Amino acid sequence: EAGVTQFPSHSVIEKGQTVTLRCDPISGHDNLYWYRRVMGKEIKFLLHFVKESKQDESGMPNNRFLAERTGGTYSTLKVQPAELEDSGVYFCASSQVTYTGELFFGEGSRLTVL
Amino acid sequence: QKEVEQNSGPLSVPEGAIASLNCTYSDRGSQSFFWYRQYSGKSPELIMFIYSNGDKEDGRFTAQLNKASQYVSLLIRDSQPSDSATYLCAVPPGGTSYGKLTFGQGTILTVHP
Predict the structure, then answer these.
(1) Quick one: DSSP state of residue B101?
(2) Of A1, A26, A56, B20, which is least packed with CB atoms within 10 Å of its CB?
(3) Chain A residues inside the 8 Å CB shell of B36
(4) Measured between CB atoms, which of B36, B97, B101 is closest to A45?
C-alpha cells in the first residue's frame, strides 16, 4: 500500500513568487492534514480536510495560503505571494478515522524562499 | 510556557542502555498522547500512544503517563543505533482524540555503538 506522497520534495523560489505543494493521501483516507515546521520551531498544524471539506483551518497563517482538496482525493497548498518567513518543511498527513491522533505522514516538501 | 515541552537534548546513550525521553503538557484536559519518531529527512512515524495513567509497553518501548503531573515519557530499552532519530511528543486538543496535534520541539536521540 502506497504511503502519503508529497511533491515536490524541495522547492526554491524567490520572494513574491507562487508555489503549489501537492499531497496524495493514502487511498481511502478521508482525513487529510497539513502541518508546517519552520526552522528551529515545532511542527505546527495548518488545516484539516474531511473529504473535500475544510474541517478546521485555524492554523493557516494568513490569506497568502490557500488549500484545496478537489474531489476529496489529493490536496494542494498554494502560497501566493511567498515571503521569506514561509520557508520550512510542509508535511501532509492522512488518517482513515477522524478522531484519532494516529496520523500517517508524508516525507514533507521543503520550501526555501530567497 | 509552551503547550507541549520536551527535553531538547540532544540525548546520547550507549548501545544497550535505556533512553528516557520526557514530555510535559499544559492542557489538563488532554486525554491522549502520541510519540512519533522521525529519521533525518523522513516522515514522522507513530510508534506509541497512551490514553491511561500508568505504563504501556510495546516491545522495547514503554510509554508512561502521569496526568496529575501532566507528564508523559518514552523509555527505549536495549537502545540500538537504529533508534537514533528525533522523537516527537504530540497531544491533541484537550478532551479530544483529534488529529489536530500540538507537537513538542522534539528530542534528538543518538545511540552510539
Answers:
(1) P
(2) A1
(3) 105
(4) B101
